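Dear Dr. H.,

I hope your travels went smoothly. While you were away I took the liberty of generating a structure for the chain from your last submission, since the lab meeting agenda had it listed for discussion. I wanted you to have the full record in hand beforehand rather than looking at slides cold. The sequence, exactly as received, is reproduced here:
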Amino acid sequence: MKIFFDARMIEHPGIGRYIKCLLSEFKKRDDIELHLLGNKVYIEKHLGSHDKIIDFTYPIYSTQEQLGFLHLKKTIGHDILHVPHYNIPVLAKFNLVVTIHDLVHIVYPQGASKKFASVYMKFMVERILKSAKKIICVSHSTKNTVEKIYGQKGLNMHVVHEGVEKHFSQIEDKHYLGEVKKKYKLPEKFILYVGSIRRHKNIKMLLEAFSALQKKIPDAWLVIVGKLSHYFDFQKKNILYIGQVPDDKELAAIYNLSSVFCNLSLHEGFGLTLLEAQQCGLSVVCSNIDPHLEIGGDSVYAVSPGSIDEVVNALHKILTDTASREFFIQKGLKNIQRFDWKITADQTINIYKELLGIA
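The corresponding predicted structure, in token form, is as follows:
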């Protein structure tokens, strides 16, 4: 079974993790022949050596990538092409599998960084629904959103949850934790946010809630990790913005050093950082949106993303009540056992087999 996989976004912070983790599991399998489209240097940086890489470095969302897919038609033939984003080929037909992570530009267009992102995404998702043989949604919430917006219950849509990487775990090495704490000048105790810095992530509310919390806990700190896509003023008392942390081992240490994880996002496709935090032994306070409830259930302290009072009360309780904090830590450690990249890979390969009619 030959699988051609578009790995161009392997260096991206969100979809890149999906690509790296899924392909790492695929490489362990002997029932597929994996051909990777992308930049050889980047692919081998993250996955090690691989002898079936097709040089395919066209920019995403470009005319060049469409022409590039067209030129690959003969190479791929009737084998499967898996595109892990909505930038699918539109000039040539393939045995196409597509992963839809979210519909953020459609659901929350004011959060898009580019003017026509919402129009482009809507057009491309319409094309996916017409041309993809199989569509993978990373959550039931994403699948339901697609069906609600497009009024279409696709029999070719499958829900496959993501997993959590093993290096996001509780770290016992105090010396290493101390080194990371010193490197990033981290405070003794702090609330942690990890994720992109975009409007739909509700960063404004996070900052306002933290300001209100400081009236109850004056020595509270907020540490923010992630790529800055939209501007927010982080030059305020006891707020530390450290940007992206490309080293996952160091990121895991930052999770371990924090007191509570907080994500008040207005829209998500999945919510992987919640699970990373739980696997590192953290309590999680998050918005009560459907994806968070789907993956977190009763293991997260869910609050209304528009209520400062609810957010402040939740954070205050976790930071000051040891029993509550430990309750959510233990719930979280049990919850993450449901998510594993091997399971994700197995389910994805079963979808390939179903498409090709392989028992």
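Two observations you may find useful: The chain is about 40% helix and 15% strand. Residues 1 and 31 are 7 Å apart (CA to CA).

With kind regards,
E. W.
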